[in-house]
DNA sequence: CGCACGATTCGGCGCGTACCGAAGTGTCAC
DNA sequence: GTGACACTTCGGTACGCGCCGAATCGTGCG
């Protein structure tokens, strides 16, 4: 559209602190203003100002509870926008400085949630497995096959909504597309609900549980090394 | 990724002048620095600085010819990034102020190129026609059907590349997805090459030619009002 | 009730950067 | 060669905005 409108939108993410907020919120959960401030390393007063801008612009939705202000991404479109932008970043930067940081980023690369679906090598592996078993095709687009639609219906019915059933999300660690959209969210919720995939610590990272390895092998009819 | 990296990328588009440059360049052609400066309403000196940043960041590629500096988007990914961002803008703003502006924006809404594929209501109409004739499916993703792949091969073979054959692009006038990716570029080039679709003036706007109406009706086996 | 705490508002500081005019460099035309 | 032109570099101005400390408001706990 008009240049100023585009610039205003971009400007929301063009600040280190606001960008840090958005990346933290990519886990799909609600954070308090204070948590975000601490995470980004700024004073609470600074965080307040940023949150006002992000909420006013519609990127974040807020919910007040007592003396806390909870804030989350306004929806999957916003999450998709941010991941999309992140996917266009310079190839493969920033080696980890400390051992702690290295293990944390390795865990993130292995598996994580991207708002409400799986990403990282786990997300890509699930997507690959779906393709190998004929439930997903990426030859001429990115779509579930009829068999894939039936499989998903049996697994965890997706309620109809305006949200696209399937969309691809480009991963910034793997540089490959993986399953997103309502179907991606459904699969992720199912795997976590079954206890086959679990969150690690408090962040976005997830891992395959001991019970999950065999279960995933059976679910996808393939013997990928899920436990990696 | 890291917040500062994301912020740096966003900052490139977070300026009215640079945003205007990028939107102008969305037509996929090469512009001179002077043309862009005039379009954005800034002095040549200002444009030089902005172009340096955009080129250094890899969003634009430059080509020097004599005393001219030609500049274009660095590739389809960049075009996609910008259109993607534009698609997330507030719904439907800015009514046109003048008659001239109104006719220009109406022409853009009717049909335009989005870097290298068709967009606007024409782009959506073509996509709809492909779906109606069983060449494209968006039930469980966004993909060409086998029939669609055969049709495209007969029409204008797409050379293999790392670029995805099919991808969807969300339109900011129509708010609907339309065909993009290598297939979208191929269809657009074919229609323009046949003289069925032609550029209007010097901008991004395109229209269906008189010869194009019947031709499109035959091509898509449907009687949509192509000439609209 | 009174204290602790999260969040907010306000005022002021300082950096980053967008902008331009003027002067300089290279290229093309005559 | 000389002039016109596209673009660039440089210097300087001005404005926006991110940041914080301190004071305030409101809520929850003891």
UniProtKB/TrEMBL annotation, chains A, B:
Matching SUPFAM superfamilies: Winged helix' DNA-binding domain (SSF46785)
One GO biological process term: response to cadmium ion
Pfam family for this entry, one: HTH_20
Record's signal peptide: none
MF annotations from Gene Ontology: cadmium ion sensor activity; DNA binding; DNA-binding transcription factor activity; lead ion binding
Domain HTH arsR-type intervals: 1-93
SMART domains for the chain: HTH_ARSR
Residue ranges crossing the lipid bilayer per the database entry: none
PANTHER family: TRANSCRIPTIONAL REGULATOR-RELATED (PTHR39168), TRANSCRIPTIONAL REGULATORY PROTEIN (PTHR39168:SF1)
UniProt-recorded name of the protein: Transcriptional regulator
Species for this entry: Actinoplanes auranticolor
Lineage: Bacteria, Bacillati, Actinomycetota, Actinomycetes, Micromonosporales
